[in-house]
Amino acid sequence: MTDFLDLDELAGRVDSGALLALPAEYSFVPVSFVLELIKNNIRDLHLLCVPIGGFVADLLIGSGAVAVIEAAAVSLGEFGLAPRFSAAIENGCILARDSTCPAVHTALQAAEKGVPFIPLGGLIGSDITANRDDWKIVDDPLERGGGPIVLIPAIRPDVAVFHAPIADRDGNVWVGKRRELVTMAHAAKSTLVTVEGIVEHSLLSDDMWAAGTLPSLYIDAICEVPKGAWPLGLTGYYAKDSDTLVNYARAAKTDAGFADFLKTVLL
Amino acid sequence: MKERLLIDQLARLLENPGINHVAVGAASPIPGAAALLARRVRQSGGKSPLQVSIIHGEENNPFTDGGRELFDCAGQGRIDAFFLGGAEIDGGGNINLLGTGTYPRLDKRFPGSYGSAYMYFVVPNIILFRQEHSRRVMVDKVDFISAPGTGPAGVKRTGGPKWLLTERCLMSFDANKSRFCLKSVHPGHTVEDVKDNTGFDFDIAPDCFTTPVPDSQRLAIMENEVASDIAATYPAFAARVFAVA
Questions:
Q1: Beta bridge partners of A73
Q2: pLDDT tens figures, A162-175
Q3: Is the ipTM of this structure higher than 0.90?
Q4: Which of A46, A96, A248, B135 could tie A68 with a disulfide, CB 3.0–4.6 Å?
Q5: Sign (positive or negative) of CA dihedral A107, A108, A111, A115
Q6: How far apart are the C-alpha atoms of A185 and B86, rounded to whole Å?
Q7: Which B positions 89-148 lie with beta carbon below 8 A of chain A?
Q8: Cβ-nearest to B145 among A90, A92, A126
Q9: What whole-number distance in Å separates Cα of residue B149 and Cα of residue B174?
């Protein structure tokens, strides 16, 4: 049974200290939701970026909400480096569990399958692997000449959150080809979703829709938040607001500039 | 003109008949334009088609199985060429996309390693592309190995660096020697200038030549077809370099 909640109720379902999974900016990012978490003064998050962090990761870090970040990279993309992230690392304020894109995807796939770990090729000889004491290099355990390989533990987020185009009244959510959201939801203990709008017909009644739909059995709660990805874009719906993101990239270079920016978007 | 020469050179590296599928990562307008030029040139020359998969936006992005599909596709050997950069690149082909200083308390943090630690092992023709060619970037030894240029011994590896293109030159990489070799120097630069700006030792090909500027036929394809092709992914880049409205 999926609950339909207000945004503050939805954000209230994330506790300080949670392992929170958020999607990359090529996917569907729940910006309004993250701003609500910041209003709630959330703390000590273990943030999992799937697999890359951007604007919202930088906002959470700048707000002091993050203790640990696991990501393949954190960047504002065309708008430059993520300034609060870089500053937090350079000042030793947060712990980075540096990873690589396929390791994040694969660790979630392990959780999705309910297995404790999963092998992944490559990676050996990278300083990422050298610094991950939770990863282990083993010889091909099946002794079929595969050579050394890295085992990666499953990652089971406490909460996965994303912003999708539409949901139906039964709590099914359409994500189209953004299948990493499906993997995130399968892997997570709980999934919260904001949506642009709610349709009256069932998304599971027509295969054209159903193939891109995440069924409600994975979804704990939904809130309708039009423009919930702003100032990022939502593919097929609206473009990103480049002016606001340029302003952010400039302002967030200093603590004071970041605080001023945050005030304007939290109004 | 600078961008046109780099696009032309990267495209030539993709016109090898062994390359049937090139993928281009995020925020890579010059590699993206090069892949689209190589596709047009192969088309117009009646050669085997080139699959171009651009992981940035919707245009020329064929993937429908989420963020993992690029890596799964590469892991199976379905991708023949891919581009990577580096905040630092060293003479052993090691790349650093993560930061400078001593990990984990870095002096300067960059975004991170992205998919490099995997793609470097599974894509046979990795083309390193970094415009800035200075001792700050081309270092003796990277501070952090996002992805190693060679090895380690015994590890299954079908991929690795093949080429390095910068604002000054084109180098090839020999995995057996674990060394770069200078193949051509761009117009306006010299071998001495490349040496002065490189923090690692490298070989110099006996037939090292001046990088040719793109010929009129290739320039015409670039200005006409590729300019509008790349505008679908990188409108600001197309406007700046090709004046596409």
A1: A52
A2: 999 999 999 999 99
A3: yes
A4: A46
A5: negative
A6: 33
A7: 97-99, 103-122, 144-148
A8: A126
A9: 10
